[in-house]
Design a protein that fits this description.
By secondary structure, this protein is of the alpha/beta class. It contains twelve helices and seven strands. Among the domains are: 1-134 and 189-225, no CATH class; 247-289, no CATH class. The radius of gyration is 20 Å and the shape is globular.
């Protein structure tokens, strides 16, 4: 049952759900910190305001399979208290993490029903609103592969093509954008969901829509379309630079996935951190003793028309539905 909300002093919670490789870092480091009421994540967010990270620890997203409404109530009280003490005039708070939208092994996008419970049972001061930025699946997979190559000793063009063509099935539901948007509309209502396309990021309309939806009073959209934005890993239209392999990062990724699954971050956090560091050091030594490759033989990957076409065919039905939902021609943007 939906509990009564106090709307006399409305304070909405705006969650930017990601996806990864869809401008999350730009929003977290260059856009949201410009405004009062931003609660992380990001390099420029004060530690006492990083409520996005603490929410991630209590939510069922990524490898985590457990979400705690009890912990969410404590979190919500802390959030409202800091809002009242530091920016009482603000009528919305913003939280951002590209990890929110991730699947766990049992559910696709478990964050959506969890946020629905937060909206109905926990947050009594306003409504929950959602920002989601999507990107055509072929380019998103290429960018993701390039980023994760730091933990992949076998990163290469051949491995990338296997990843895109053979392993794309395990990513299907997560990047089934039409289903995601339908679920968000059903949970929160269309007027409370802002969908942006990464392909529009160079247009003033992209940033103006974000400003209006998020009430970014101090933000100037024109600042985001001045000059050429630099993507450090994307070398040109269809080529991405691979990162140098790192055993430490590989161990951190592996241990992080296991711990999120077996030991939720809100349970005994200090012993958990010690166990995490110990496990990481053991796994790093194991990888070193196995003489894992220290650097890839190849320095870049190429998204060929053949691979791109294979991915587009895989998502054809989903993206045709997406076209209907958004009312946009998606063919020229690489979705169809």
């Amino acid at each position: 049952m939906k509990e009564h909300k106090n709307t006399s002093q409305q304070t909405d919670l705006i969650f930017h759900l990601g996806y990864d490789k869809c401008a999350s870092s730009t929003l977290q480091d260059s856009v949201f910190p410009q405004t009062k009421g931003y609660l992380g994540a990001g390099l420029n967010t004060p530690l006492k305001h990083k409520f996005a990270k603490t929410f991630q620890a209590l939510a069922p997203c990524g490898p985590s399979i457990v979400g705690s409404i009890k912990q969410a109530r404590i979190w919500a009280e802390q959030v409202y208290n800091i809002k009242q003490s530091e920016f009482p005039e603000v009528n919305r708070l913003i939280l951002s993490s590209e990890f929110y939208i991730m699947n766990n092994i049992f559910k696709t996008r478990p964050i959506i029903p969890f946020l629905k419970k937060i909206n109905d049972q926990v947050w009594h001061h306003g409504e929950i609103k959602i920002i989601v930025i999507i990107r055509n699946q072929a380019e998103k997979l290429a960018s993701l592969y390039a980023q994760s190559s730091i933990a992949n000793p076998n990163a290469s063009q051949a491995d990338f093509e296997k990843f895109c063509v053979g392993d794309v099935r395990r990513f299907y539901e997560n990047m089934n954008y039409s289903k995601c948007i339908e679920e968000l509309h059903e949970a929160f209502g269309k007027d409370k969901v802002c969908v942006l396309l990464m392909e529009d990021i160079g247009k003033i309309e992209f940033w103006e829509k974000l400003k209006q939806f998020s009430d970014l009073v101090e933000f100037n959209p024109k600042d985001m379309v001045k000059g050429e934005k630099v993507n450090q890993r994307k070398l040109n239209k269809n080529t991405w630079k691979l990162q140098d392999y790192n055993n430490d990062v590989r161990a951190k990724y592996k241990v992080n996935n296991y711990f999120k699954f077996f030991w939720p971050a809100f349970i005994a956090p200090k012993p958990r951190q010690k166990a995490f560091e110990f496990s990481k050091s053991i796994l790093k030594k194991f990888y070193t003793d196995k003489k894992s490759k220290s650097a890839q033989n190849e320095e870049q990957i190429y998204l060929s028309d053949e691979v791109k076409s294979t991915i587009q065919k895989h998502y054809k039905v989903s993206n045709q539905k997406l076209h209907e939902i958004l009312g946009r021609d998606l063919t020229s943007l690489g979705y169809l």
